[in-house]
Amino acid sequence: MIQMYDVHKKYTENVEALNGINLKISKGEFVFITGPSGAGKTTFIKIILGWEKIDRGQMIINGINMLKIKRSKLSFLRRNIGVVFQDFKLIKSRSVYDNIAFPQKVIGIPYKEIKRNTWEILKNIGLSNKKDSFPLELAGGEQQRIAIARALINKPKILLADEPTGNIDPEMMWEIMKLFIKANINGTTVVFATHNRDLLKTTKQRVIHLKKGKIVE
Ligand SMILES: Nc1ncnc2c1ncn2[C@@H]1O[C@H](COP(=O)(O)OP(=O)(O)O)[C@@H](O)[C@H]1O
Ligand SMILES: [Mg+2]
Questions:
Q1: N or C: which end of the chain has fewer CB within 10 A?
Q2: Ligand with the closest atom to the CA of 36
């Protein structure tokens, strides 16, 4: 699903954000990416999305060679990747319902199906009573659940998360975590970047530890 061979990424001459990454993440895996601030976690997520280009090495995502991919193909690849950020990135001027409906409209799903899918996922995350609310009327944990629903609504093969519990109260953290685990049980490959030790301590998923752009364990 995700393969990297000797991947290097520099933003400036002296900073190697990723410095020779080799790994393979198989279909259906749940992998934590961890390490201190500046270790390269966000860069790791961004290169999978194609938001940053790698300088050297090879990278294959969903069978697509990312070095050779044309810009026009990138949007197609991204349809198979859902992503969740620390700061939710919901559309503030749109209702909860519209935030989740939007990615479905983009790929041309019929109105009735959008309605059914959106309603179902709102029920699954326990927020159907908030469908007409606006993001800023909700607590952080609620906003993040909406963002996860939005990331999953088109059934991506890969779900990426960059510090998704970073702005969440500790008691809500496990609610968020549960949604990722559920997505993984349903077959989605999950790559979860976090430096939260509490999350890592209690889970049995594979942990890839980055330090200064290298895998250290
Ligand atoms: N857009 C950028 N321009 C220049 N340097 C960057 C940029 N983004 C990240 N970096 C640098 O790359 C390194 C890795 O950053 P990042 O991937 O954000 O790490 P993490 O998410 O683990 O904190 C850091 O040294 C950071 O300062
Ligand atoms: Mg980061």
A1: C
A2: 1
Token pair 């709102």 in the structure block, residue: 122
CB atoms within 10 A of CB 170: 9
Domains of the chain with bracketed CATH: 2-215 (3.40.50.300)
Residue having the nearest C-alpha atom to atom 3 of ligand 1: 11
% of the chain with per-residue pLDDT over 90? 82
Question: What pLDDT was estimated at residue 96?
Answer: 98
State the average pLDDT over residues 77-86: 92
> Phi/psi at 165 (nearest 5 deg)?
-105, 10
For ligand 1, what atom is nearest to the CA of residue 162? Answer: 21
Reported in sequence order, the residue ranges of the chain that DSSP labels E, i.e. its strands, are: 2-12, 15-25, 30-34, 56-61, 64-65, 81-85, 158-162, 189-193, 206-211, 214-215
Question: What's the CA-to-centroid distance between 21 and ligand 2, angstroms?
Answer: 17
